[in-house]
Design goal:
0% strand; mainly alpha; 3 helices
Length: 57
């Protein structure tokens, strides 16, 4: 069985716009997403999500 993982792409224009964002905004978004993930994914769901992210599922 071949591991699939996640493939996520952005256009060159989207990357350029992201690069213009202040570092504080990027870090705030990352922190918010991290908090949301840990609230929503607990126990078995979190283990499955981590395996999926690593490409094990």
């Amino acid at each position: 069985m071949k591991c699939k993982g996640i493939k996520y792409t952005r256009s060159e224009e989207e990357i350029k716009e992201y690069m213009k964002m202040p570092l504080e905004s990027k870090l705030a978004w990352l922190q918010s997403f991290n908090e949301f993930t840990h609230k929503m994914l607990r126990g078995k769901r979190l283990k499955i999500w981590k395996k999926f992210r690593r490409g094990e599922l």
